[in-house]
Amino acid sequence: MPINQQSTISNQKSAICNFELENPMVRVASFVVAVLLAAGSAASQQVVFQTMPGVPQGPARDTSQQKPGTAIVRGRVFAADNGQPLRKAQVRITAPELRENRLTTTDAEGRYEFKELLAGRYTVTASKGSYVTLSYGQTRPLEPGKPLEILDKQTVEKVDLMLPRGGVITGRVVDEFGDPVSDVMVSVQRYQFMQGRRRLMPAGRNGMTNDVGEFRLFAIPPGQYYLSATLRNMMGFGAESDDRSGYSPTYFPGTPNVAEAQRVTIRVGQILSDINMALVPTRTARISGTAVDSQGRPMSGMVMAVPKGEFMGMFGPPAQIRPDGSFSIGGLSPNTYTVQVMGPSGPDNEYASAEVTVSGDDVTAVQLVATKPILVAGRVIVDPAAASSLRPSSVRLMAQPAVMDGMMINMLPPSTVSDDFGFEVKTRPGKMRLAFGGPPLPGWSIRAVRYHGEDVTDSGIDFRPGENVSDVEVELTNRMSDVSGLVTNGRGDAVKDYTVIAFAQDRDRWTIANRYVRNARPDQDGRFKLTGLPPGDYFVVALDSVDGTEWMDPEFLDSIKTKASSFSLGDGETKTLDLKLNTTSS
After folding, report:
1. Which residues of the chain fall below pLDDT 50?
2. How far is Cα of residue 499 from the mean position of the Cα atoms in its chain?
3. pLDDT (tens digit, 9 = 90+) per residue, 222-231?
4. Which of 94, 249, 264, 360 is deepest in the core (most CB within 10 A)?
5. pTM strictly above 0.85
């Protein structure tokens, strides 16, 4: 998700900012927020941008020009172990296409209610303290919930959720001498397929060790996890030191190499005690250099070193750029880092970054030379018969990396389409795709992006520094395809718990952030629905279970092709498919 660093915090006396950012594409990631103080000093604190497994998120509803809905959803939240109602549980209902995102709290009897809902497909999620967060219809960890199909003036009752008690892991973190280490971040992680590759992702709540090195992680869904411990000396922010001693991110039982780590298995409500780790010492290094703008003038703000690799998680504090443009980032373990400027970039939104490999020795004289954003100009193409139903100012476009490797930090904000359907989007150099920016545009999708007449919808455009681009067409359509149906078992009985995956027959289209691979869960009536697939030839299969994000993994798609049926889809076509249930293991 793009994180725009131009946002400011006014009248903020504290240098520490703690908050949560919710987004359906990112489950857990840690960032550092540095708030510049009036005196010119800075402080930083690690914060967790976290969405819990199974919790779909969406933008808040824009009610300024929207009539209230007429539907109602009611239900209760219970503890799965004893059936007792859970009071003061948080219940969220979301419908991204409707820009609907509401939150309520259960009463003393565990009841909740959402009124004035628009017709559409919704997801309901509940959470409370030490219980596992679940969506309605979710039966396995990391599995999506079932959508609720709601009609106008309909009241949907008994949308109940049974929350299992989460697992707990407790233990202690010590150094190489057996002494306790405080302020170590401990987290459970598991492999998920994200951004085109298997990555080790945080899979639950993080915890910090206390003054005697103890930690306690709770509300952990059942499963197998890697346990990691990472020490970041946040109090040393901005300080120079000749001390090169430090600690590698350490995996249980005590290795810096995840391939040598031992997975921890936890069952529903289980408490695992004495899961202890000793941090692995390493020699840390420092990256230093200068950051200047395109005119050779010192830049201001911060410089951050973002580690690359399979683990997408926590990284350390940034370094403030000095008045002469110099910077120095210390405490870096061996790795390859993207070193980039964050914070004020001037009126032209200039950007500077470099890839630096640290092998244990200091890396000096790194030159960060900023470039001005590239201006991408073009027009939005809409069928004249549908143009009257689309307000140009509701369309926002932005450039996103065609291949994402790591978190998208310091991205430029979306641009609004003008009244004559022209647009100007600013982007960084590199291979980028044009996409909608901000919340979904209900009922519309990008049909094609063309540059000099060539289709670059999925491949993107290779933008070069200093070279503005024009003659870009973004074609929108409101002719959305619709594939729906029911699933039956071997006896011919309808089933209501399954996952449908539709994916292009052309393997080259199983790419990152592609439009040709979709999954769906059944609604309360057992019907699945896939909306917005582009025209083409597809495989489709109904499976009894799908683990997390594996439906995005090309290797997994290859493994299920033999179980799949084939179908073809025309432009804006509506198709009904009745499928047979397959088992994932067979």
Report:
1. 1-63, 234-236
2. 21
3. 999 999 999 8
4. 94
5. no
Is 384 exposed, middle or buried, given 0-12, 13-18 or 19+ CB atoms closer than 10 A?
Answer: exposed
- Report the distance separating Cα 519 and Cα 531, nearest Å: 10
Which residue reads 């009539």 in tokens? Answer: 67
558's tokens: 């290859």
How far apart (Å, rounded) are the C-alpha atoms in residues 147 and 140?
15
Alpha-carbon span 287 to 283, nearest angstrom: 14
Question: Which CATH fold would you assign to the domain 374-477?
Answer: Immunoglobulin-like (2.60.40)
- Does the domain at residues 482-582 carry the CATH identifier 3.40.50.1110? no
Strands 469-477 and 120-127, by their bridges, are unpaired
Largest CA distance in the chain: 75
Indicate the fold that domain 167-283 takes in CATH.
Immunoglobulin-like (2.60.40)
> Residues 107-148: pLDDT tens digits?
999 999 999 999 999 999 999 999 999 999 998 887 889 999
Task: Tell me whether strands 264-266 and 207-208 are parallel, antiparallel or unpaired.
Answer: unpaired
Distances (CA, A) of 443 to 30, 296, 478, 556: 34, 47, 6, 31
Q: What's the gap between Cα 93 and its chain centre?
A: 19
| Structure tokens given for 361 | 């020795």
Burial class (CB in 10 A: 0-12, 13-18, 19+), 268: middle
Q: What is the pLDDT of residue 196?
A: 73
Residue 27, amino acid: R
